[in-house]
Amino acid sequence: MSGPWTALLPAATVGTDRQPGPWPLPAGDIGALARQAAESATAPATGLLRAAGVLATCALAAAQGPVWAEPLPAAAPDDARPVLEPEAALDALTWLLQDGPARLQYEALLRIGQAGRRLPERLLPQALELGRRSIALRAPLLTVLGERGLWLAAQRPDWAFAAGASEATGGDAAWTDGTLEQRRAWFTQARRADAAAARERLQAALPELPARERADLVATLATGLSIDDEALLDQLRTDRSREVRQAALNLLLRLPTAAHPQRAAARLAPLLVLERGLLRKRWQIDAPAAAAADWKADQIDATRPQSDALGERAWWLYQLVRQTPLAWWSSHTGMTAAELLAWAAGTDWSEALVRGWAEVLFAAPADDWCDALLDHWPTSLREDPARMLGLLAPAARDRHLLRYARAGSQPTASVLVHALNACPPGQALSAELSGLLARTLSKQFGDGVLNTDYGLRSLLSEFACAAHADSLATLDTLPRRADETPSCAEALLTVERIVSARRALHTLTPRTP
Amino acid sequence: MASMSLTSEAVLALAPDAASAKAAHGLVRPSQWPTLGANDAAVWGECQGSGAKPYQTQVDLAGPAFRCSCPSRKFPCKHGLALMLMRAQQPASFGESGAPAWVTEWLASRADKAEKQAEKQATKVADAPPADPAAAEKRETQRWQRIETAAQDLQRWLADQIARGLGVLDDTALQAWATMARRMVDAQAPGLGQRIQAAAAGVRRGADWPEQTLARLGLLQLACEALGRRGQLSAGEQADLRVVAGWPMDRDEVLAHGPREADRWTVLGSATDERDDRLTERRVWLHGERSGRRAFILDHAFGGRGFEQSWVTGTAVEATLAFFPSGSGLRALLVDTAASAGAARWPATQATDEFQAVARRVAGCPWVGLHPVVLCNALPLRHGDRLLLIVDGRALPLTVRDADVWTLLAISGGRPLNVAAEWDGQTLAPLTAWQCDELLWLRGAA
User: Fold this and answer.
1) A173 class by beta-carbon count within 10 Å (0-12 exposed, 13-18 middle, 19+ buried)
2) Cross-chain CB nearest to A49 (options B22, B162, B440)
């Protein structure tokens, strides 16, 4: 609004005592009116105020914003995906994005994506905020943002995680311009289609990638992994990032015929000997007596950290064990996983063996080893059994959980914690386990347990999110007691809301893209 | 009386604050409502709260007006909102049986009250002169005199400030401005005092503060001089000066003598602002479909209490308004209760006509604070850290809450929308956005 005001501002700033006018008011009707108003005043100050009154009024009457001549940015492309419907699912979504547990949010985004739908525009800012705070939600979120969501995300730096290539661009844009999540998804797809070609794309891109992304994408080589990948993995064993080296070593454990795991086995073989006892032959294990010179080239860390519970030789043994595929043990000794575990317990080196095996197991999961460990959890193993449960396919996992639940040796809350920790978001507990747990909870609540068991109460909503669809009816009719506390009532209300939201989501029909 | 069922969005727009809306969502569970019923006139239900006795919640659809037996001071309370949300989302949960006594009695008492008010209005207009017209007139004359004397004082003071120059304004000088503002309050002209304080608050704020301050003082000068020659002005202009001085018009007087307009009014939007000391101000902006006239209804509520009349943005009401005498002719009162008349018919406008109307209103009364503008084909655009609305090749700066910025951009997607907004001469505060007759965005709904 400077223009006409420049005539009055100097005098108004220093005062009309010093600059009593006349002031260079603009030509034209408005200037003339202001001049006339000013000149008819008795004092210069009043005159200036009168002129200001004229200008202010005219400015208010004339204001309609400055001319905009710059080109307008591109609008969001049209969305091929239809918006989520029906109304009930939309209402559920509105609630759960605001107040729902993360697991429910994950399921909702996943199901909306599977149904080939996208989020309504009004919920996009909230959804992007969720994605900003939770990396875990990003993958399912990206598929339901639609063109509109990607367009919106591109306008805010902290939503950059979603500002990658759009679904419509197709081709390899997701790989060249996408976010890490999009590149991972593209790469997984590419590995399924043509593992060798995909590996070459990755190899070409690796030198430009930051360590975290290198490690992430290298781990994705697990899809379509074969001995053809050995050369690249062998090269990555010496990457400057520890994360990348570990990712490569983990994958090599899944390739028993590769040179690196074979060398590891060859180092172990002389330490594991069959000794003839009085009655029968028995395998004996010994730890290395010294570190060898060629260890370093194979990423064997001969220096025991001072804080480690293992002694130096045990540490060396553990180092060798963690580089050797589990299958070698069975084929070398003829013992099953369960027999090996029982045998290890009787040796002097059980902790080094069990720790090494567990690590190999996480890198290259094997159901028989998981089962054997979960059935007889070694006291020396400080891992969380729930993490190992997570390695198993749902059915195999539930065998252990059902055993825990039926045995009644553990409190329900503890079984729930195991079950929930092992159940990744987007998956449900089995019908059998869900049913058993829901019935147990229902009975305990009827007995008034919920009023006092804070731990159980806090797990309730998480369980409602992960329970099998068949158990929702039981959860919807959990017994209410006249003496329930307000926080109990609130917990049960949240369960009701989760159940009704999940029912609404389950009406969405999955579509193959 | 025609009633319509409200959409979830419309119901939530009635919530007094975000917490109430959230709490209401938590109660949208038919299982928590042992009784739910509805007919053409009302919706009712009993909600099991923490106490032994369920709360009785009812909504008169003619308003909609809410009533609930819960102790909440929010209005409408979460139960009322939840009831209406359920009505919108799960109409099948509502029984069709006759209304219980606690509903019919309330509806009857509301009808009674409305009738009595109409009667009171009629008798007042007909034959109820003020108790002592001479005394009232004397009081009025006295107050005008006080205000006029204050305006003369203020003029001298304003001239002093400009004679010395705005460049010397420091905190001590601004304290003298606050003193002057208080003197205006003492002289029964608090409106002038508020304008001084607003001018003081703008000093050294923003790069263009000197011209902004000068503009504010210039408008004050104009008001003082107009007060000095009040006798020569029209009744409307005198009424505007009275409002500028902070002397509210008598509502009964406006209802009795203000020019009336009966129309089907589209509710363009409403803005609720927290003023100091638990005072809530609500401005409801209306567009008359037949007359093309704009109006706003100003209400205040104290301490979280609700407003008697609910206005649902995006709907229309058949109602008669009585306008305050004014050169701008914007502010009005509702003469009788408004009957909902279905969905809004959004006006189609040209930006030039809208700003022409603003200019006409400014010409009628330069002190109008906010103007309703309806801008069609308007594109919200982020430019640096500002949000602009591009209309007809011009860029209007928008004032929007942070969360609203992103929902507005999300629903636009870089394509033009139709927007109703409050225009203060420099920035637009959007109230509502729609496209193809579909209400897409409401201020504060994010």
Assistant:
1) middle
2) B162
**Length, in residues, of chain B:** 446
Q: Are A153 and A162 in contact (CB under 8 A)?
A: yes
A146 touches chain B (CB under 8 A): no
Note whether A327 contacts B: Cβ–Cβ < 8 A: no
pLDDT of A122 reads 92
Q: Tell me which residue of B273, B186, B177 sits closest to B220, measured CA to CA.
A: B177
Question: What are the tens digits of pLDDT across the range A363-410?
Answer: 998 989 999 988 888 888 887 777 888 888 877 888 888 888 887 767
Helix residue spans in A253-336 (DSSP H): 259-268, 312-321, 326-333
pLDDT digits (tens, 9 = 90+) for A60-108: 999 888 999 999 889 999 998 999 988 888 888 988 998 899 999 999 9
DSSP state of B348: P
Distances (CA, A) of B41 to A235, B81, B308: 78, 17, 18
Q: What angle do CA A418, A419, A420 make, to 5 degrees?
A: 95
**Which of 305-334 (B) contact A at CB < 8 A?**
none
Q: Consecutive 10-residue runs of chain B (446 residues): their mean pLDDT?
A: 61 77 80 84 83 83 81 81 86 82 86 76 59 84 94 95 91 92 94 94 91 95 95 93 93 91 93 79 94 93 73 90 92 83 89 94 93 96 91 93 89 95 94 91 75
A163–B contact, CB cutoff 8 A? no
**Averaged pLDDT score across all residues of chain A:** 88
Q: Is B407 part of the contact surface with chain A (CB cutoff 8 Å)?
A: yes
Distance CA A11, CA B161 (A): 12
Q: Which amino acid is at A149?
A: G
DSSP B168: G
> Is it the case that residue A448 has pLDDT exceeding 90?
no
Structure tokens, A158:
């902290």
Instruction: Determine, for residues A67 and B395 on separate chains, whether the beta-carbon distance falls below 8 Å.
Output: yes
Sign of CA pseudo-dihedral B366, B367, B369, B370: negative
Q: What backbone torsions phi and psi does residue A164 show, to the nearest 5 degrees?
A: -75, -155
Quote the tokens at residue A474.
């039981």
Torsion sign, CA atoms B169, B173, B174, B178? negative
Number of H-type helices and E-type strands within chain B: 12, 16
> Are the beta carbons of A2 and B159 separated by less than 8 Å?
no
The DSSP bridge pattern shows strands B339-343 and B371-383 to be unpaired
B225: chain A residues, CB-CB within 8 Å: 50, 53
Beta bridge partners of A8: none
Element (H, E) at A157: none
Indicate the range of A152-156, A309-313, B123-127, B224-228 predicted with least confidence.
B123-127
**3-class secondary structure, B66:** strand
Which one of B159, B359, B413 has the shortest CB-CB distance to A46?
A: B159
